[in-house]
Design brief:
The structure is a single chain. This protein folds into 2 domains: about 130 residues, Aspartate Aminotransferase, domain 1; about 260 residues, Type I PLP-dependent aspartate aminotransferase-like (Major domain) (Aspartate Aminotransferase, domain 2, 3-Layer(aba) Sandwich). About 40% of the residues lie in helices and about 15% in strands. The longest helix has 21 residues. About 5% of the residues have low confidence. α6 links the parallel β5 and β6. The strands form 3 sheets. The chain has a 7-stranded mixed beta sheet, sandwiched between helices. α11 runs parallel beside α14. It is an alpha/beta fold.
Length: about 400
């Protein structure tokens, strides 16, 4: 029995329509978009256009042409951060960026490297024991040179949801732009760039949005597009849109061939009637939280509530500080897979800094269960049994 509970890494299994779209594209089209005027190349361009339109509607983008496709979420975030930093450096304009300690390394490490190169300065605001950031702390850290706030909508360690509208209001008070890392929330929570005033939104598409691996998006409002310096150029025709005939900032954001099977799979997934209903996970999350509350050996890392207004179904556990041992979470994961077929994640989850605030360094991070659109009651039964097993065995 396989109980897959690592949807925060990638969703599985993919919807049948998604797999069919991949096979159909490879069998019936297979061309590179923007590389010719023959039918299959135009069909590939049409696929990109249709996917942009569907995704723009899903995330509330101003225009489909504000969306660039990347190979993964790390690339999308790197392109944003290095693009902003390089543009400021070229203009000799001081740049200070504020982000949070909950962020993924694909934000923290580019900021650190850009600082080493003298392109910007930055600060990461601490979080509490649930993974939430106090906006008063953010406001106190704003300087006259602060130009961007970067926040991950949902922590991939604790599941805590940051209040994006409140972040936007803070940014507006100081004339600062807002970038949102939606790796965990895209396809899991409603997103609307226009109503929330997000300037840059980036996310992989293979998690909550349900595509196959190899596709991510970077959405940038028109007024902010000029603030991103190009990082890769060439690959002629990469931004031509055979449907509209328009050209723009995509010329540098989509230079080279794109992963057409993955983009086709995203278009198919966006047609599925299964997105953006986080409340349906609440009873399952409460079942898991109840097992953790009853445990004397395990502690919850994150919000102790099933409310989808506060958290997504990303649930981490760790030993109590006095019982922490190096590698203990990895050992837990192996036991759960070998005995119950549970596939979950153990470690720091590419978000090392948050563990300093959560007190989980000594245990090698956390053991994380993450639910998704294909999670079943049987999966939850297995998790609850697994928590009881860990309580008895360790």
């Amino acid at each position: 029995m396989r109980n897959y509970l690592d949807h925060a890494a990638t969703s599985w299994p993919k919807a049948p329509s998604v797999l069919t779209a991949v096979e159909q594209y490879l069998r019936e089209c297979g061309a590179a978009a923007g590389r010719g005027s023959y039918r299959s190349a135009l069909d590939a361009e049409k696929c990109i256009h249709q996917t942009r339109v569907a995704l723009a509607e899903r995330i509330g983008a101003v225009s489909p042409l504000d969306i660039a496709f990347c190979s993964n979420g790390t690339q999308a975030l790197n392109a944003s951060i290095f693009g902003i930093a390089l543009r400021a450096h070229e203009a000799r304009s001081p740049l200070h960026v504020l982000t949070t300690a909950t962020e993924h390394n694909s934000v923290l490490r580019p900021l650190a490297l850009a600082e080493q190169r003298g392109w910007l300065t930055w600060d990461a605001i601490r979080c509490d024991e649930t993974g939430l950031v106090d906006l008063d702390d953010v406001e106190q850290a704003v300087t006259p040179e602060t130009r961007w706030l970067i926040v991950n909508h949902v922590s991939n360690v604790t599941g805590a949801i940051q209040p994006i509208q409140a972040w936007r209001e803070l940014a507006d008070r100081y004339g600062i732009r807002l970038m949102v890392d939606a790796a965990q929330s895209a396809g899991m929570l409603p997103l609307d760039m226009r109503s929330t005033g997000i300037d840059i939104l980036a996310a992989p598409c293979h998690k909550g949005l349900g595509s196959i691996l190899g596709c991510a998006f970077l959405a940038v409002v028109p007024k902010a597009q000029s603030e991103l310096a190009p990082l890769w150029i060439g690959g002629t025709g990469s931004s031509s849109d055979a449907i509209t005939g328009e050209f723009g900032w995509l010329e540098t954001m989509e230079s080279g061939n794109r992963n057409m099977p993955a983009i086709a799979s995203l278009h198919a997934s966006l047609q599925c009637e299964r997105m953006d209903r986080p409340e349906r996970w609440e009873p399952w999350v409460e079942r898991i939280l109840a097992e953790i509350r009853d445990s004397k050996r395990l502690r919850l890392i994150g919000p102790d509530t099933p409310s989808s207004r506060t958290r997504l179904p990303v649930i981490s556990i760790a030993p109590h500080p006095g019982e922490a041992q190096p590698g203990i979470c990895q050992e837990w994961a192996m036991v759960l897979e070998s005995t119950l077929g549970i596939e979950c994640r153990a470690g720091f989850h590419c978000a090392g800094r948050i563990h300093e605030h959560l007190g989980t360094i000594a245990s090698g991070g956390t053991l994380r269960f993450s639910l998704g659109h294909t999670t079943s009651e049987a999966d939850i039964d297995a998790v609850c049994e697994g928590i009881r097993l860990l309580e008895d065995v360790f």
